[in-house]
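Researcher: Re-running this chain for the archive, since the previous output was lost when a drive failed. Same request as before.
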Amino acid sequence: MSKTSIDSEAVRSLAALLADTNLSEIEYESAGLRIRVARTLVAAVPAAVAAPAAPAAAAQPAAQPAASAENHPGAVKSPMVGVAYLSPEPGAPRFANVGDSVAEGQTVMLIDAMKTFNPIRAPKSGKLTQMLVTDGQPVEFGEPLLIIE
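Model: Regenerated C-alpha cells:
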C-alpha cells in the first residue's frame, strides 16, 4: 500500500463533528483510507490507573474486583480502546498507586490509542482503593480501570 498524505481538512472536519455531537471518537473510511479521531472527555468520562498487586489486592480473587467494579459508584471506566500505561515512561514512577489520595483532574494513567498517549484524569478527589488493570494491558471502551472512593 502506498503512503497517502494526511487530509488535514478531513481531520479538522471530523474533530469539529466530535465537538458538535459530544462524541468521544469517530472513524471515517473511504477508498481504502481510514481516519479515526478521538478525544478524552474529562468531565464526562472517568479516569483509570493500575499498579502492582499489593498484599490487600492479592488477597482478593481476580474475577471478583472486575465483576463488582462494573457497577461500583467509584468505578473509573476507560473512555476508549487502547493500551493502559501507568507511568509517563518506562522506569518512571507510576502516576498513582493503591492507597494514594488523588485530586480531581490529576493524571492517573495514559491510554495509548493509535500511537497517541491520552491522559486519563481522576473525575473526582478521593482515595484510590483498587486498580483493575496492569501496565501495558489492552483495555476496551467502558472497561473498569480503577476505583476511587
